[in-house]
Design brief:
5-stranded parallel β-sheet, alpha/beta, Rossmann fold, 5 strands, 226 residues, 40% helix, 9 helices, single chain
Length: 226
């Protein structure tokens, strides 16, 4: 069943930071928006240097300034700055405990990403250990890098992956959708783990992740504090 979203006076911009349940959430958005959903994964911010991705987002933001988007919903891997100046938009994002997100991203890379050419540019070589991955500058503080020039307060909805079911209800209430259309869908979990369980780490590993992602931890704690 699809929502009647054609009459909505705004477009929903859904930012998918890697390993924050974004693939599962995309299924919810498809049930709500149907063909009115556009998936925008072309930017791949972490595949580019900091200056490159920021300049690209700024250029697109200027190109769409004061213009309404043709789609009812856009979801994907992009910096929210890209759509910051478009007319009649509302923004949403899901965040996950930064320590768990980093570990999940590492295991996703080990399963699926060892043959992607751009990874070698940033030091993602086959056989990389978790500690070596955590120390790579390109993959530190991913939340902060995605949210450059777009403060957390600009989002109409910020959900926690750890509270996915509860916050999904808050999401549909925030935007006026039917709750039955937002049933939990988890299609991108690690097949080697049970859904909902945390990755177990050695104390030294957790300390290292926290040290290398201090800005992300601050953003996450700010989100939890409301």
């Amino acid at each position: 069943m699809m929502e009647n979203t054609g009459s909505l006076p705004w477009a929903l911009i859904s930012v998918h930071v890697p390993k924050t349940a974004g693939t599962s959430f995309a299924e919810v958005l498809r049930r709500i928006y149907g063909d009115s959903l556009r998936v925008d994964n072309a930017d791949r911010p972490l595949a580019h240097a900091r200056g490159e991705r920021r300049l690209a987002a700024l250029r697109h933001a200027c190109a769409t300034a004061s213009r309404a988007l043709p789609e009812a919903c856009v979801h994907g891997h992009f910096m929210p700055l890209k759509y910051a100046f478009a007319r009649r938009t509302r923004f949403c994002i899901w965040l996950r405990d930064p320590v768990q997100r980093v570990v999940s991203r590492y295991h996703h890379y080990r399963r699926h990403g060892e043959n992607e050419p751009h990874h070698l540019r940033w030091g993602l070589v086959p056989g990389l250990s978790l500690e070596e991955f955590v120390r790579l500058p390109q993959y530190r503080n991913t939340y902060a890098e995605y949210l450059w020039a777009f403060p957390l307060r600009r989002f109409d909805f910020v959900g926690s992956v750890e509270r996915y079911e509860q916050d999904m209800e808050r999401f549909v209430d925030c935007f006026g959708f039917a709750r039955e259309l937002a049933a939990e869908v988890r299609t991108n979990c690690n097949p080697e783990r049970d859904a909902g369980r945390e990755y177990r780490l050695e104390p030294a590993q957790e300390r290292l992740i926290r040290q290398c992602n201090a800005r992300d931890l601050a953003l996450y704690e700010k989100m939890l504090g409301g």
